[in-house]
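Input record (Table S2, row 498):
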Amino acid sequence: MNNSKIRLRLAPSPTGFLHIGNLRTALFSYLIAKKLGAQFILRIEDTDQKREVEGAVESLVKILDWVGINFDEGPHLGGDYGPYIQSERLSLYQKYAEELIEKGEAYYCFCTAERLDKMRAEQEAQKMAPRYDRACHDLSLEEARKKIAAGEKYVIRQKMPLSGEVKVYDEMRGEIVFKAAELDDQVLLKSDGFPTYQLASVVDDHLMEITHVTRGAEWLPSYPKNILLYQSFGWTAPKFFHFPLILNKGGGKLSKRQGDVFVEDYRSKGYLPEAIINFCALLGWHPDGDKETLNFSEIIENFSIKNLGISPAVFDLDKLDFYNGYYIRQKNDQELTKLCLPYLEKYVEKINDHEFKIIACEEVVSLIYLEQVIALSKDRMKKLSDIVELSEFFFKEKLDYEASILVWKKSTAPEAKNKLQELKQLLENTEKENWSKLKLEEIIVSYIKEKEGKNGDYLWPLRVALTGREASPSPFEVAEVLGKKESLARIEQAIIKL
Ligand code: GLU
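Output record (glutamic acid complex):
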């Protein structure tokens, strides 16, 4: 059991799916926790009730577990600092908000939504930054309490200093100075009794004895307000880290419009956790040395806080594809087959652990056969779902393709037909023992030499006959896996087409 006094937390809002940016925050937080030998805590920030989704906590824990990020405390694990879900801590926030009122650090505000909308519209028309105009700032506590007793709705706002500077220290950027006059009188407690992020995160970080707050740079504008709140309570603030923003290639925000932004989407397309972790680690961390492919344990081993950068990281999908291809090729054929089979359900049905049925022709094949099929596509796969497109010709009873693609470059259809007829005869006479890719290559290539023919004139139509496609593994590899009978049947089909 880790009893460290150093405590870090991940504080996601349960929105249903894990944004890739939040995974990067989770990963960096986890890595810093590992480096410092800290406790790592999961806290669910669900005080924005509109955004909450059923089952979201379970799916969050599941996807983080899938990539290999786990916790010491959290709603699913318990711990001494619970509850770990903010909606179960509501009375706490109310109590602390009242404490600030008593101290004169916060005030009740009775402005209606209509009034605030009008105020904002006016500010916008005058090109002013939207900010609460402090209409209720000077209301006496007595007057406010009367209004409350009369049933008026209210929020509680934080009193910001009216002038001067607020200096904060970010562990990655050093000192940052904000002008107090630019800070909005932030709502701390909403009219429905729910706290805002500003109040709930500070109260919880304090009560949960969090020593290091790690979050995305989009929270930098909140930072001075957080620090002022710590001061108002008389609490010591934790250390803060703000990880760099993640932008798309065009320099904009990562959004659904440019493609997938949720880790679950990448998982279902067949991205491996190793690739996603490797990719996310390099979104802002710059390891010493030039090794780019690092598995999770290498990342943990090499990670150092000083190598975290602050300039925005660029989300480059080609890079993710590169890592994924790399980790796919690290798998052995057995592992890869297990990973690919769920994508092939349309074509292959499991009978038992060793036997499968090819649905189109009802033929029973062995697991070893499927491993051979999948191994042939290993080099071309960028993601596991590519296996469908790359290998479906093995699972179709009749290949559907245009006869014209059987014809190689300057050759003609009758010529392609002749070549296939010659090869058919040659292969019919090939003994079963010689039906391996190496032997087949030897036999076919020496036959072409003997005939003083061109490789392309023979091998192109042969490959298309076996696969029905213009791009595929070599005809020798495919023929070996298909076997003699099926290979000859496919050549016969091609001859008929021509
Ligand atoms: N609930 C915030 C979010 O999901 C967390 C920010 C923080 O880590 O403090 O973005």
